[in-house]
Amino acid sequence: MEKDKGAAEEITERTGYDPAILAAIGSVALAWYQFYVRGNKHYGLFIGLWPPTLLAFSSAIRDQQRQRKSREQDHETD
């Protein structure tokens, strides 16, 4: 888990964006491609559901990390 966390932080530092945001942008582009270019409207709509899901998971994970850090700091001050 620490290795994955380090990789995500490295990507964030290198690009300035959270990897989940990059994945969301990529899936929006793929959804538009499927919907408008390929004419596969059902597949395009399905892929279009991915960005909010990715961003929600990313937000939930960040909230858990913040809560964990807050609890650790509270224990250190006790």
Low-pLDDT segments, ≥5 res: none
> Which strand-content bin applies to the residues?
under 5%
How many strand segments?
0
C-alpha-based Rg, rounded: 17 Å
Commentary on this structure:
The protein is mainly alpha-helical and 78 residues long. The chain has helices at residues 2-15, 19-37, 41-48, 50-77. Helix 2 (19-37) runs antiparallel to helix 3. The longest helix has 28 residues, at 50-77. The protein is elongated, with a radius of gyration of 17 Å. The model has no long low-confidence stretch (mean pLDDT 88).
Task: Give structural attributes.
elongated; single chain; mainly alpha; 78 residues
Give a brief description.
The chain has about 80 residues and is mainly α. The chain has helices at about 1-15, 20-35, 40-50, 50-75.
SSE order and pairing:
Elements: H1 2-15, H2 19-37, H3 41-48, H4 50-77
Helix pairs in contact: 2-3, 2-4
